[in-house]
Amino acid sequence: MNFPFYIAKRYLFSKKSTNVINLISAISVLGVAVASMAMIVVLSVFNGFSDKVAELFTSFDPQLKITPVKGKTVAQDNERLQRIMALPQVEVYTQCLEDQALAEYHGRQAMIILKGVEKSFEQLTHIDEILEGPGHFELQATADMHYAILGRQLASASFLGTDYYFKDKLYVYAPVREGQFDVDDYDLNDMKDSLYSAGVVFSVQQSKYDRNYVLTSLAFAQQLFHQTGCISSLELRLKPGSDFDAVKKEIRQIAGDQFYVRDRFEQQEDTFSIMEIEKLIAYVFLTFILVVACFNIISSLSMLIIDKRDDVATLRSMGATNKQITQIFLFEGRLISAIGAILGILFGLLLCWLQQQYGLVSMGASEGSFVIDSYPVSVHPLDVVIVFVTVLIVSFLAAWYPVRYFSRRLLS
Questions:
Q1: pTM score, two decimals?
Q2: Model confidence over 346-362: pLDDT tens digits?
Q3: What is the DSSP letter of 362?
């Protein structure tokens, strides 16, 4: 048996000559436990928001998106894109043309992002899950009749009215991109085209999409933007069971330096980067709170060392070395840290489970106006490991100073 560890364990759980030492030791364990619990809960809430945002984006963003490095568009029959579409791991793909335009309905105007897609877009994404209204996903009826599916916020009372679908034509304007534009000599009809309602709107519940995007057929977008035979992106979904990382690497090799290949998280890099920074800042602040809580360990060990002066003399007379005596008090601090960390993590995991099951903490006065009614929670095993290691490191450092200082004075 490890002699210093055995004595340290006896010191921790035995009654001291001064009751306040037991009280401070209990407070030290409680302080470390509360700090650990707070770190687990707060980091898990950040994970919950991140996972919820990723889930919402999944309904609209493709699994992989390929865009040209130079310029906005590329030819549909590009040899590299054809090779990518022919890969056996690709289950479905759609070619897209996306650009800004001006929409007008009954004299009301709005700047939009018009995205022309193929019929396969319905199978590529989970868009059926976010459609609202009596219609269905439909983009083109005939060569001259195209449909529009608007974002829910765009199709609000301020633009279309209260109906899910518009009864008259929706006019869309886009400037001619070739030649010099002369404001005194142009025909507005050369810049506009019309769309009909598909009877539905989509609701990603992200204003980036719901307020700006309009879906229509690829043929209509190519005609409006004068980009016949061109696309701005190729969007893919892989077959179930495919090695995503391996296929992504292969696609990047085929794409070379001509195309960007981005997964869902890379497509929303700005959003997730901000969330990761916020999570990191929260972790740093909670670590500072943990440092403050660890001052209790310093007080507890300092008083314990003073209380055990006679025991130190007895242990030395029994043959204990100075190093073993120092280790006794170090183990005492480490036991306080480890017990506090374990209890805090267990209680933190319990609170996270209760929040997941019962939604104990709601969104407050704004409940009902958000996508969710209570704070989302997602526990990541890596976060649990990081919290445990952080608590142990900070607590061990807090225990080292008083032991080193008082041991020198007692053992000199």
A1: 0.74
A2: 999 999 999 999 888 88
A3: B
